[in-house]
């Protein structure tokens, strides 16, 4: 693949192409997978430009027009501000930029190694919730594999590489 996959279906294609072992070494970072939105998202028809992540369809119906099934690797970007954390927010200085009004400009950060990952809320306006518990701003909290993380109104599943590999292996494939 020429560019980093963005959706679960593209990761499934990569798993098929590379095989399980090479897939895990090619995509070693933990990820956030978009699993939904909290609140109404139908504002767009009323002229509200606050809708979340409209994406190009490219003729592939497996790519939704929302955050659902979108994969965000926890990786530093070339344009992101250098530091320990992989930062996420709607501002351009972040490593993971999500154009969503319910996210703060610099919403939260992640640090990780092979054994664990931690998240810290940067005193975001709409908060961060991990498995139903509101995160204390400025306090690092350990993420467990398959944790549910709500940032603003966006809902994610946190996955380490092995769980991502198992998830995409279990997905149905389109016949070509």
Q: Can you give me a brief rundown of this structure?
A:
The chain is of the alpha+beta class. It has helices spanning 8-18, 20-26, 161-169, and strands at 31-37, 71-73, 86-89, 96-97, 108-112, 117-121, 128-130, 133-134, 141-143, 148-151, 154-159. Helix 1 (8-18) packs across helix 2 (20-26).
Descriptors:
globular, 6-stranded antiparallel beta sheet, 5-stranded mixed beta sheet, Tumour Suppressor Smad4, alpha+beta, 11 strands, 176 residues
Give unreliable regions as ranges. 40-64
Proper CATH architecture: Sandwich
Number of domains: 1
Q: Approximately how much beta-strand content do the residues carry?
A: 25-35%
Q: Could you characterize the architecture of this molecule?
A:
This protein is an alpha+beta fold. It has one domain (8-169): Tumour Suppressor Smad4 (Sandwich), CATH 2.60.200. It has three helices and eleven strands. The protein has helices at 8-18, 20-26, 161-169; strands spanning 31-37, 71-73, 86-89, 96-97, 108-112, 117-121, 128-130, 133-134, 141-143, 148-151, 154-159. A six-stranded antiparallel sheet has the order 2-1-11-10-7-8. It has a five-stranded mixed sheet with strand order 4-3-5-6-9, with no helix packed on it. Strand 7 (128-130) and strand 8 form a beta hairpin. The longest helix has 11 residues, at 8-18. The two termini are 17 Å apart.
């Amino acid at each position: 693949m020429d560019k980093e996959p963005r959706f679960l279906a593209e990761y499934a294609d990569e798993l098929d192409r590379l095989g399980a072992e090479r897939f895990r070494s090619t995509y070693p970072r933990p990820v956030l997978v978009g699993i939904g939105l909290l609140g109404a998202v139908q504002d767009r028809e009323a002229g509200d430009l606050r809708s979340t992540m409209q994406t190009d369809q490219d003729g592939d119906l497996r790519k939704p027009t929302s955050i659902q099934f979108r994969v965000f690797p926890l990786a530093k970007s070339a344009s992101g501000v250098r530091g320990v954390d992989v930062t996420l927010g709607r501002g351009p200085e972040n490593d993971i930029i999500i154009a969503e009004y319910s996210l703060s400009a610099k919403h939260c950060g992640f640090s990780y190694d092979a054994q664990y990952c931690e998240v810290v809320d940067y005193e975001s306006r709409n908060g961060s919730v991990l498995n139903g518990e509101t995160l204390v701003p400025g306090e690092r909290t350990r993420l467990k594999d398959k944790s549910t993380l709500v940032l603003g109104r966006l809902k994610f599943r946190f996955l380490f590489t092995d769980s991502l590999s198992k998830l995409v292996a279990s997905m149905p494939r389109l016949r070509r």
